[in-house]
Amino acid sequence: MPDDVEDRVKQVVARVLKCDLSAVTERARFTQDLGAESLDSIRLVAAFEDEFEIEMDEDEALQVQTVGKAVEFIRKVIEGSPS
Length: 83
Known about the structure:
By secondary structure, this protein is an all-alpha fold. It has one domain (2-80): ACP-like (Non-ribosomal Peptide Synthetase Peptidyl Carrier Protein, Chain A, Orthogonal Bundle). The protein has helices spanning 2-17, 38-52, 58-61, 67-80. The radius of gyration is 12 Å and the shape is globular. The mean pLDDT is 93.
């Protein structure tokens, strides 16, 4: 399952930021490497919530700077949410 979360995060990032999936690596930074602007960050949070059917703390989520950290953050939210 961990790979599934990572794959889904990368697909969401590529779709929302309209970038090539190959550019979406674990170390890729949303703003510096993938060209995200502030509005894109908010769109990403909403897209992750839709994709994983979770609620994320928006302030915390907007502090996440890399794809790898987003995967970790989402895993924590998923593990902490009642299913």
